[in-house]
Specification:
Pnp Oxidase, Chain A, mainly beta, seven-stranded antiparallel sheet
């Protein structure tokens, strides 16, 4: 039976990444500037799911990975005092599909899609990992909840659809 060794346990301790040290940037320069990155309140790092199929091999089911799927991605933003950031998202959404004129954006144009860069940082501010969401577009520009009893800053969600993501150092 192996006994617990406190010295060995202490020697393997490492500092951990923090959930509040991250940076998100939307690369669409038609609507956004670098300053908007500081209004990001929260997000998640995207997940990858590999779909599977079963093949029969000598009477046994053999599972194989097939096409990866990328779930929609949500960023929660603080609302600035002029609501200019939310208005920029609403303008982008109208360019994709204008409900008044019934005009649709062109996926090949420079303002339809945008890449989104997410950086997870260590406590010293150095980059741990970089995710790049390729050809993203706002699927939902969420509501802003207003509440007399709350002292929290107003916020809203934007849900993005995207084609795929890359991870620096892995892809």
């Amino acid at each position: 039976m192996v006994e617990f060794n406190l010295s060995a346990f202490k020697s393997t301790y490492r500092d951990y990444a923090r959930a509040y040290t991250f940076y998100a940037k939307i690369e669409n320069t038609s609507y956004f500037t670098d300053e908007n990155s500081y209004l990001v309140r929260s997000t998640t790092l995207p997940a990858t799911t590999n779909d599977e199929m079963e093949a029969n091999w000598q009477g046994h089911k053999y599972k194989l990975a097939t096409t990866p799927t990328y779930d929609d991605f949500t960023i929660n933003f603080n609302v600035d005092t002029e609501s200019s950031l939310r208005n920029q998202f609403l303008k982008w959404a109208v360019e994709l599909n204008n409900p008044v004129t019934n005009d649709h954006g062109e996926p090949g144009s420079g303002s339809y899609f945008s890449d989104i860069t997410l950086k997870h940082l260590n406590p010293q501010g150095d980059t741990i990992q970089v995710f790049r969401l390729i050809d993203a577009w706002p699927k939902t520009v969420g509501e802003i909840s207003l509440d007399y009893t709350s002292k929290e800053p107003a916020s809203f969600d934007v849900t993005f659809a995207y084609q795929y993501h890359t991870i620096d150092g892995i892809n």
